[in-house]
Write a structure and sequence with these properties.
The chain is of the alpha+beta class. It contains 17 helices and 17 strands. A five-stranded antiparallel sheet has the order 2-1-5-4-3, sandwiched between helices. The chain has a five-stranded antiparallel sheet with strand order 7-6-10-9-8, with helices on both faces.
Length: 565
């Protein structure tokens, strides 16, 4: 009877153990139980699968042998061995981490003590394959970092329109985030190309001097930067070989040159991997950018190439904008040079011509009354005189613009009375005011002296009054002078059609006129010159206006004169 109960107990225990064995082998986690003496008590099938251990090693239950077998599969084997030894030295300790396998797998590892009747009997290791989870997380993190990088790159590339500064910004973006060196080639015309930038970290003058001096590149080269510019297709070299840096077989893709000394300089960089992306904008390829790695652990693949292409698109926009801006500046400079030369050349013959004209006018006036055609001649002479005065004023305006642009607007401040100046200008404008049917009212003190350039302030008053008469013809014009807090305030007010709000901010710019200027003559330079003259006096000029309510131009001049630079 006793034997029967014993047999039943044994069968029940075996059944329970079988169930436990089945449960352990069915779990998705690899389990390893090691006693306090370092002997393996139990492991399941998933443990052997994760570590790809042969059956004889598992059956041998030699933990040291298993550790030696396992470490060779990891990216950091020495660290793994040290962690295992530390874990066995501290049986009560617990920790979790991620093991990185050389084949790309990621295994979550957990260590905790196991106890029997409340007493620590050893260590329980569990291992779970989290490769897909980690890769998804790493992908999300990498995508986030790349998005932040692209955003920062866009911000930095938008900071300047200067070509050299833009190129330097590109180099600063690419290195060290994408590589250790960068070369940028820009297309010139249909058959030319030059290297506008080359940088390597750490700096190597012997290399950069050689490559940097070789600015003219061979656009007909069958591969590399020239080929990318011609085809508009990116090039990826995961591992650099000797043929990438030799002229043999026509392969010289790095900087697009057949020069052996330049290729030798490139070889000295220790280039391991590189990629070249086109710089395309507005439907055309304007250049190409090569990014290289000199570190064996940094090898480029499709994901790195995609990021480089995105940076290349933003780089192309920045370089194209900088080139357009540079060309615009050159065009503007040519225009300014022409205006300066033309105004000087026109002024030279006009001055003696004006004198001769005045002498002819005086001669015509001296003819006796009744002389045939005397009246018609005088009328013609007066009309021609007005046109000549207008031409002389235009030439002076162009000359002033060229002086201002070149920074040659010189002031000669002296003690002068603003009220007196206004009176002189008003006297000079009497015929113009009468012809425009404008009544002029002047209000202010009898005198207001300051330290200003008399002729230039005269010019400001004349331009503002001319502007008021032009746009307020047939209506009253007012000039008001006040002294406020060490400043002279001059207001010229017309009662014309007013200025639209959208035009207020730009009417003081060169060649700008308000929308109410239709049918009026001029180049839109008068207010621009006023702004520059007033600014040179350390003053300010502004306008207050609304459609249908006229316009008031307010000039504020420091009574003490211009502030020294």
């Amino acid at each position: 009877m006793a034997e029967t109960k014993t047999d039943q107990a044994n069968e029940g225990r075996e059944a329970l153990l079988s169930l436990l064995e089945a449960t352990l082998d069915a779990t998705k986690e690899g389990l390893l139980v090691v006693d306090r003496n370092g002997k393996i008590v139990r492991s399941n099938r998933r443990f052997a699968e994760i570590w790809r251990m042969p059956a004889e090693l598992v059956e041998g239950k030699d933990d040291s042998a298993m550790v030696q077998f396992a470490k060779d599969q990891l990216e950091k084997p020495a660290q793994f061995v040290n962690q295992v030894e530390s874990a066995y030295a501290d049986l009560e300790g617990e920790f979790s981490d991620i093991l990185r396998f050389r084949d790309g797998r990621r295994i979550a590892r957990t260590k905790q003590p196991y106890r029997i009747s409340g007493v620590t009997a050893g260590t329980l290791w569990s291992f779970r394959d989290v490769t897909d989870e980690r890769r998804a997380e790493e992908f999300r993190n990498e995508a986030r970092k790349n998005a932040e990088f692209v955003s920062e790159a866009s911000r930095r590339l938008a900071e300047s329109l200067d070509f050299e500064e833009t190129v330097q910004a590109i180099q600063g973006i690419v290195i060290p985030r994408l590589g250790d060196w960068s070369a940028i080639g820009i297309r010139e015309g249909e058959s030319g190309m030059r290297l506008v930038a080359f940088q390597i970290e750490p700096p190597a003058p012997a290399i950069t001097d050689r490559i940097g001096n070789n600015t003219l590149l061979d656009l007909s080269a069958p591969s590399g930067i020239p080929n990318v510019i011609r085809t508009g297709k990116s090039f990826l070299c995961t591992h650099v070989t000797a043929e990438h840096l030799t002229t043999d077989g026509g392969r010289y893709p790095i900087v697009g040159t057949r020069d052996p000394e330049t290729l030798a300089a490139v070889r000295k960089t220790g280039l391991c991997s590189f990629m070249i992306v086109p710089l395309s904008v507005r439907g055309k390829v304007i250049g190409a950018m090569s990014i290289g790695s000199t570190r064996p652990e940094r090898v480029y693949g499709e994901s790195e190439l995609a990021l480089a292409e995105e940076i290349g698109r933003r780089t192309a926009i920045a370089i194209d904008s900088a080139m357009l801006y540079r060309d615009a500046l050159r065009t503007i400079q040519v225009r300014e040079d022409f205006l300066s030369v033309a105004s000087h050349e026109l002024r030279t013959p006009l001055s003696p011509l004006r004198m001769q004209f005045e002498m002819a006018h005086l001669f015509a006036k001296s003819l006796p009354e009744g002389t045939p055609k005397r009246t018609e001649l005088l009328e013609l002479m007066e009309g021609a005189g007005l046109q000549m005065d207008r031409l002389l004023k235009l030439v002076e305006t162009l000359l002033d613009v060229s002086r201002i642009t070149a920074g040659r607007l010189k002031l000669h401040p002296e003690r002068c009375d603003l009220v007196v100046l206004i009176g002189e200008v008003a006297k000079r404008f009497e015929p113009t005011l009468a012809k425009a049917r404008c009544r002029l009212a002047i209000r202010g003190p009898d005198s207001l002296e300051g330290h200003w350039d008399r002729s230039r302030i005269d010019q400001v008053i004349s331009n503002l009054l001319s502007n008021a008469v032009k746009f307020g013809a047939g209506r009253p014009v007012e000039i008001e002078v006040q002294s406020r807090a060490g400043e002279a305030h001059l207001t010229v007010r017309d009662n014309g059609p007013g200025i639209d709000e959208t035009d207020l901010a730009r009417i003081f710019e060169r060649f700008e006129r308000g929308t109410g200027a239709a049918g009026t003559q001029g180049f839109g330079l008068g207010l621009y010159i006023c702004r520059e003259i007033v600014g040179a006096h350390s003053g300010k000029i502004g306008v207050e206006s609304a459609p249908g309510k006229g316009a008031s131009f307010i000039v504020r001049l420091p009574i003490g004169g211009p502030t020294p630079s």
